[in-house]
Amino acid sequence: MDENMEKILYSEADIQAATKRLGEELTRDFDGKHPIVVCILKGAIHFMSDVIRNMDTYIEIGFMDVSSYGDGFESSGKVKIVQDLDMDVAGRNILIIEDIIDTGRTMRALVDIFKERNAESVKICTLLDKAERREVEVKADYVGFEVPNEFVVGYGLDYFNYYRNLPYIGVVKPEVYKNN
C-alpha cells in the first residue's frame, strides 16, 4: 500500500500527538457533562478510539454509519443514514467524532438531526478539516489537522474500503484512482 502514496502528510507520531491534545481539550470542555461521543463509521473508528483514551471524564459511546460518497471519492451531495444511533439524545451533550470534513454536507445534516432530536448541545471533533472544499456552513469545534484539497487515505480514511489500516495519513497517487 505504501507504494501507492504520493507523500505522507501526517505520521503516526503526528496523529498520536494530535489525539492526545484533543483528548485533553475535550476533558476540560466536557468534564461533568457526561457527553455521548458519536463515532461516525467507518472512517472515524481509529481516531475516536485514540481520542477517548486521552479523555479523563465520563462518556457514553454511540455509533452512526452515514454516507455521502457511495463507492467513489467525490461526495454525491446526498446524505444517507446507514445505521442510526441507538440511544435517546434529548437533553444530552453530543460530541460527534468524524475522520474528515470536506464539503460539510454530512456534518451539517448530522448537526441538524441532533438538534431536531433536542440534544442539549452538539460539538464536532474531526481529525481532518478540508475547509477549501466546504460547500455548506459548518465549523468543527476541535480539529486535529487542516488538510489541503488532496485525496487522502489512512488511519481510517479509505478508497474503496482499502487503506483504512495504514498508521499514517497519506496522499494517494493520482494514477491509483484516475482509472476508476
Write a short abstract of this structure.
It catalyses: IMP + diphosphate = hypoxanthine + 5-phospho-alpha-D-ribose 1-diphosphate; GMP + diphosphate = guanine + 5-phospho-alpha-D-ribose 1-diphosphate. By secondary structure, this protein is of the alpha/beta class. Helices cover 24% and strands 29% of the residues.
Break the fold down into its secondary structure elements and pairings.
Blueprint (H helix, E strand, L loop, with lengths): L4 E6 L1 H19 L5 E6 L3 H9 L6 E8 L12 E4 L9 E9 L3 H12 L4 E9 L12 E5 L5 E2 L15 E4 L1 H4 L3
Parallel strand pairs: 2-3, 2-5, 5-6, 6-7
Antiparallel strand pairs: 1-9, 3-4, 8-9
Helix pairs in contact: 1-2
InterPro entries: HGPRT, Hxn_phspho_trans, PRTase-like, PRTase_dom
Organism: Ligilactobacillus ceti DSM 22408
EC number: 2.4.2.8
What is the H/E string? EHEHEEEHEEEEH
Beginning-to-end CA distance, first to last residue: 17 Å
For this structure, what is the CATH class? Alpha Beta
Task: Enumerate the strands of the largest sheet in spatial order, edge to edge or round the barrel.
Answer: 4-3-2-5-6-7
CATH-derived topology: Rossmann fold
| Beta-strand content bin | 25-35%
Q: Label the overall shape.
A: globular
Number of helices, where a helix is a run of at least 4 consecutive DSSP H or I residues: 4
Number of domains: 1
GO cellular component, one term: cytosol
Domain Phosphoribosyltransferase: 15-159
Enzyme class: transferase
Subcellular location: Cytoplasm
